[in-house]
Specification:
Layout lengths: L2 H11 L6 E2 L4 E4 L4 E7 L26 E2 L15 E8 L9 E8 L2 E9 L4 E6 L5 E6 L6 E2 L19 E3 L7 E9 L5 E9 L11 E2 L3 E3 L5 E2 L2 E3 L5 E2 L5 E3 L2 E5 L1 E2 L9 E6 L5 E6 L17 E2 L5 E4 L24 E7 L2 E8 L4 H6 L9 E3 L3 E2 L5 E2 L1 E5 L4 E6 L15 E4 L11 E3 L2 E5 L3 E9 L2 E2 L5 E7 L7 E5 L2 E9 L13 E6 L2 E8 L18 E3 L2 E5 L3 E7 L3 E2 L6
Parallel strand pairs: 4-39
Antiparallel strand pairs: 1-46, 2-3, 5-45, 6-7, 7-8, 8-9, 10-12, 11-12, 12-13, 13-14, 15-17, 16-17, 18-21, 19-20, 20-22, 22-23, 24-25, 25-26, 26-27, 28-31, 29-30, 31-32, 32-33, 34-35, 35-36, 36-37, 36-38, 39-40, 40-41, 41-42, 43-44, 44-45
Length: 570
């Protein structure tokens, strides 16, 4: 059972069945501090204790499933144009490319607050009260005399690069909890920096040992190497993939700026306590490229401490060693399982397709999409299966057995399951999982539901949306109360390379049991609920609200009138 679900059960066992959530008041635009006339806000009141349903990492958990199972306010009955819509806008400086995070009880000056944490490409971190939308603190992550990075001759993150990846929170670390953030900057002399920061949740202050400048070397003769070691050059890299907190370590993974060589595939871990470097792995040490993009998704991890990610196009040796691994340890364009032991990281298993070389040569890589891990499943013989799901630019859904990923075979893929032909576009997003269904939203394709039966995905979707999602497709998130009131949330982008500042973004809500049933679309709420969209935006749901990043802040959606909270479901 997940920790949010367990906490929800405890709360309700002590009397939360009778809780009445009163929702009233006015939304606030945080630039002016005045009421936002376009929508009323949702304000939670009453004598109940603060909730405990946190969102501490990208897509809700280390499996990256995207499911928030403690939602007791939003239901399939009340999410509609009459009772749901825009309630506020949290204005910030800089683009919000990372998913907002949420902590349900942060102690500030002796009082508990529900807090939404937002980071921006202007190297700023913010904390907002999730009930009244006031700004609680703001922190700059720039060093003295520094500015944010320029776009590095790449239009993917522009006009500046600061904080791109979704941070991670340890609510129990430090005096009030800690948020870990990677920020890019440059000084007056044109030197670039990548730094790992640890901020106090209550104040935004840097904690002891913070920040830590990121640097690394690894044995190899690949791109950017010198004297037998590949060197990490901070100006060549961007931390796009979300951070992973696992067993006391913060894992960072790195992509390039567009495909500007030289670059290789780095995984660099730091102690969450001291911020000192804990381990380094390069996934293409004797080749080039093979970075970690995954459209903002983070490395996934299972309960045994294994780490999983998808690498982008890059070097892969089809000549294998006696164990079936590439002869020079280059893992471009692959599913990769990584283990940590004795201060070292190593690739323990992998899968790549039989035509991996031609795919990499044509930029048709697996690593454009995100990865998720499904819960333990039983196949029709009663055997437990542990599977990972990912897809990229070849429009094939790959379902890998995490106990034996499949490695490389030059004539046919040796993987647990492949589903070709059901994604009508390239995959630049992360799927979601809920109630034995996987949801995929490819470019210029409908959002599709693939049921899981006998530990396999259906070979065709059981339902799909009427709407189709332009580039880069959509990364869905799911809210539910246990297994009931499942709602799939999806942002529809503007479709102009995902970088438009025009008010062309929409939020959709679908019945998780049937995607053909749209519960709500922000287009129904008029111009006030339309918003500018960023490239790889993932909606975050918590405490009866939906938070969506934009180029100037976070738009907040919620109920427009009073409701009674639904009892928690186990």
């Amino acid at each position: 059972m997940s920790r949010p679900m367990f906490r929800a059960r405890v709360l309700f066992l002590v009397g939360l069945f009778a809780l009445e959530i009163a929702i009233s008041g006015c939304g606030h635009d945080q630039q002016s501090g005045t009421p936002d006339p376009t929508s009323p806000a949702v304000k939670q009141a009453g004598a109940s204790p603060l909730g405990t349903e946190d969102v501490l990492t990208y897509h809700n958990d280390n499996a990256r499933t995207g499911q928030y199972l403690s939602e007791r306010i939003l239901t399939t009955a009340n999410v509609n144009a009459a009772s749901f819509g825009k309630v506020s806008f949290l204005r910030v400086q800089g683009r919000v490319d990372a998913e907002p995070l949420y902590v349900s009880n942060v102690n500030m000056a002796g009082a508990g607050h529900r807090v939404v944490f937002v980071v921006t490409e202007h190297d700023l971190a913010y904390a907002f009260d999730a009930d009244n939308y006031s700004q609680l603190w703001k922190a700059s992550l720039l060093g003295m005399g520094e500015t944010t990075s320029d776009a590095r001759n790449c239009g993917q993150v522009a006009p500046e690069i600061g904080i791109t990846s979704t941070p991670v929170i340890d609510a129990k670390a430090g005096p009030h909890g800690t948020i870990y953030i990677v920020a890019m900057s440059k000084d007056r002399g044109g030197k670039y920096f990548q730094r790992l920061h640890a901020l106090d949740l209550a104040s935004g202050a840097e904690l002891p040992g913070s920040p830590q400048t990121i640097s690394a070397s690894f044995p190899g003769t690949g791109a950017g190497s010198k004297n037998g070691n590949v060197l990490f050059d901070p100006k060549q890299y961007e931390e796009r993939a979300a951070l992973l907190l696992l067993n006391g370590a913060i894992y960072t993974t790195w992509s390039s700026h567009c495909d500007e060589d030289p670059y290789t595939g780095w995984v660099i871990a730091y102690s969450a306590t001291t911020l000192k470097q804990a381990a380094v792995l390069n996934l293409t040490p004797n080749g080039n490229e093979g970075s970690t993009w995954m459209s903002g998704d983070g490395p996934a991890a299972d309960s045994s401490g294994n780490i999983y990610l998808l690498t982008a196009n890059g070097t892969f040796e089809t000549s294998l060693d006696p164990n079936g691994f590439p002869s020079r340890s280059d893992f471009g364009n692959a599913f990769v399982r990584i283990t940590a032991s004795g201060g070292k990281l190593r690739v323990a298993d992998y899968f790549t397709m039989h035509d991996t070389i031609s795919e990499s040569n044509t930029d048709e890589d697996l690593g454009s999409g995100g990865i998720i891990l499904l819960p333990d499943l039983k196949d029709n013989s009663g055997q437990n299966r542990h599977v990972a799901v990912g897809a990229g630019k070849d429009q094939i859904i790959y379902v890998a057995d995490r106990d034996s990923l499949g490695k490389f075979n030059p004539t046919a893929d040796k993987i647990y399951q492949e589903i070709p032909g059901e994604l009508d576009g390239l995959q630049f997003a992360t799927p979601a999982y809920f109630n034995n269904v996987v949801y995929y939203g490819a470019v210029r394709d409908s959002l599709k539901a693939f049921p899981v039966t006998n530990a396999r995905l259906a070979n065709a979707p059981s339902s799909q949306t009427a709407a189709k999602f332009e580039y880069p497709g959509t990364t869905p998130s799911v809210s539910a109360n246990g297994t009931s009131n499942g709602i799939v949330w999806a942002v529809e982008p503007a479709g102009t390379a995902g970088e438009s500042d025009d008010l062309a973004g929409f939020l959709h809500a679908y019945d998780a049991a049937n995607l053909a049933k749209e519960l709500y679309g922000s287009a129904q709420s008029g111009a006030g609920a339309r918003f500018a969209d960023n490239k790889f935006i993932t909606p975050m749901i918590a405490g009866g609200k939906v938070f969506v990043g934009t180029p100037t802040g976070v738009i907040v959606f919620g109920l427009l009138k009073s409701v009674t909270a639904v009892p928690a479901k186990p």
